[in-house]
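Appendix B: complex inputs.
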Amino acid sequence: MVLYSVLGNDRLVEVVAGVGAAGLLLCVVALAGRWPAVIPFGLAGVGASYALFLSLRERVVDSHAPLVAAALFAAAELAFWSIEPRVGGDRAVVARRVVYVCLGALGAGLLGGILLLLTAGVSGGVVLEAVGVVSAVVALAIVTRLAARARTA
Amino acid sequence: MRRAATPKLAGYAGLGALGLLAALAVRLPELVALAAPFMLVAGVGLFRARRPEIGVEVAVERERLLEGEETEVRVTLEAAVGAERVEVLLELPQELSVVDGANPRTLHLADGEQRELSFQVVCRRWGGFRVGRVHLRTHDALGLLRHEAVVDRRRPLKVYPHEEELWNVLRPADTQVFAGHHVSRQKAEGIEFADLRRFVPGDRIRRVNWRASARRGELWVNEHHAERNADVVVFLDSFAEARLGGRGTLDLALRAAATLTERFLRQKDRVGFLTFGGMLNWLLPSTGMRQLYRIVDAMLDTEIILTYAWRDIAVVPRRTLPPQALVLALTPLIDDRAADALLDLRGRGFDLVVVEISPLPFLPQPRDELHELGLRLWRLRREAIRGRFERAAVPVAVWDDGSSLAAALEEVSSYRRHARLARA
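Resulting structure:
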């Protein structure tokens, strides 16, 4: 993903590469130290390099974004899996988990593609932007609320 | 089951929120595509969260076994509400370990499904254990929430010390009144020939020695030694032990005690047991298989408890040490209190035999000259203790893991034969 961001752009390459490298370094530190709380920061760094890449290029939708979304999701799943304590057991459990990761990555790609298709034909505006902000805040509030309920249960 | 969120949940929610807000801030729809899966997974995972209900049963194949033997522990899981991944950890004492398969293990449990896990457990050291505490941890399919529980289904597991090769045990100096396998010094009904004497009215005709009678011209009869049993008290010194790498003198002492107890009980002797140390434990002498199990079970409770309190033989209940009993002491001769108590017993007329469980194989190598000097002084001190026993005519046989117990006991028997000759 970082390579894609760096190679696909010829402006401020050092900045894009630096942000991406910082993200990767955080990921490596998290994996080496088995600190799951650090992984999201590394992924955010990698995502930030992609965001920089997008903002520096011409205003056209990146057609590879669904693939990037799938790769980022798969990387996140595998990173969290790799630092879990090793527990022996059924091969079927591992196989099911591999299937889940693959399906998740596929779903992420599909979802990204659908979202891009939906947004492609829509022109911006204050109302739509407000709807977007409200949607993001509501989604975050729902997740926070569910997480809090899950913690107290 | 106790529920907890994993770091993944917070991470995904954070990434999703950050991505969505960043998309709005910089007006990049691609970032929505990146963030949406994380937010969606977090939301779906939490919405579908449910509490697993898993019943656990534990069964142990054999509840009594010897050191080094294996047994199977079966853990049965029955899920009313299943989980995508269930981690099962069978908690085991340090002396037990799983030899076949992993512990913990992961499995998938669907709703209403029943699974049985088999753990092949090897028992590396003697002891009384309780096995069956099971730790459960479940994860949902998305790995966002985990549920944990500890189920206590413990079952007793007794691991006995394995026995030494031993053909003959010591012959006690004195016997008791009941029938047994020892040739008594008293003359009575028996098999072993003792002497000849003149016939007196009341003697049985079948005891007449016709050859002696023909030679002497009057009736002479055979006298025999009676076969009697003996009282044996196994005295275990538990004041201190030398231990290195998971093995120690107490292990050897218990192995010897179990072997000797079994052999003496087999020849109908009454056997008692006395643990003398920081913990005082005793069993009155008795016979039979029940006594063997009683003694071995009592042995499993033996442990070294450090104490500075002075202990002498007066604290031992009087009936534990019957008169004319053979006291068989198993001691590493590390603590003076045990040696003093044994010499006190000898002073009271008990037939005492000391089997010294050598602590030398369990000592670390001396690091420098000072340690070497200390070791030499310690050995001299042990020699002095042995000298005290020798002066009291108590045989001391040294036994360690590398030699056989039979050889050590033969040494004692030889000493006792020579001591008798010297007395004669």
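The longest strand of chain A covers residues 88-89.
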